[in-house]
Amino acid sequence: MSVWQLDDELWFPNPRWGEDDGLVAIGGDLSVERLVLAYSNGFFPWYAFHMEREPHWYCPLDRYVIFPQEIHISHSMRQLLKQQKYEVTVNQDFEGVINGCSMAQGRNDEDGAWLGPDIIEAFTRLHGRGYASSVEVWEVTDKAPRRRLVGGLYGVTLRHAFFGESMFSLVANASKLALIHLARAMVRDGGRFIDCQFETPLFKGMGGRHITYEEYMGLLTR
Asked: Fewer C-beta neighbours within 10 Å, C or N terminus of the chain?
């Protein structure tokens, strides 16, 4: 097992040569071109920006995904959806969502925080080029301002897949609402899978499952 040092050339090593935790390479940059190449091959950047100066590139061989048509919506979430208490939108406030993901619950102050200024700038560029999207959850009130951003998620959109990067909630279940909205939109538009990167209780409870890297790349390149 090895960790490769990237240079100025646009390339990634075979992920099967990486570490057991999925770390394959260090270095390179966060240009749009490198990020598109990375996600096209199952890689994503993830590093503690308080401690590391170079991007760390991961590509786990055990992938955790949600197939949009298999999204699990609990009884309580169905009731919340019926109430229409919140408004859900797409790509209306990418900057608000990515900054919300960075700062919610004081995440950016933690030693292991990964969503720092360089990542925010890089994914904002991706969004400007049409390769990244956000889902926003708004609390609507009768007072000014008429609505407040209370949750959402963002990720990379490429090849009929959505590569989830982060989500946040300032009120209960806001991130679940965003994920349900995303899955329903992908079912409607022919999206194949949502890449969750790693298993979490939230993703498991909403229908996530493990697939191999071979299955993952087969779906991505089909």
From this structure: C
Q: How many CA atoms lie within 13 A of 32 on its CB side?
A: 11
Average pLDDT in the chain: 94
Check pLDDT > 70 for residue 144. Answer: no
The model's pTM is: 0.94
Longest dimension (CA), the chain: 58
Query: Count of H helices and E strands in the chain?
Result: 7, 11
Confidence of residue 140 (pLDDT cuts 50, 70, 90): confident
What is the token pair recorded at 113?
């925080």
Burial of 38: CB neighbours in 10 Å, binned 0-12, 13-18, 19+:
buried
Question: Of all residues in the chain, what percent are helix, strand and coil, respectively (each to 5)?
Answer: 35, 25, 35
d(CA 16, CA 2): 9
| Contacts (Cβ under 8 Å, ≥6 apart) of 97 | 134, 135, 136, 149, 152, 153, 154, 168
What pLDDT was estimated at residue 148? 94
For residue 222, what pLDDT is reported? Answer: 83
Which residues have a Cβ under 8 Å from the Cβ of 199 and sit 6 or more positions away? 64, 208, 210
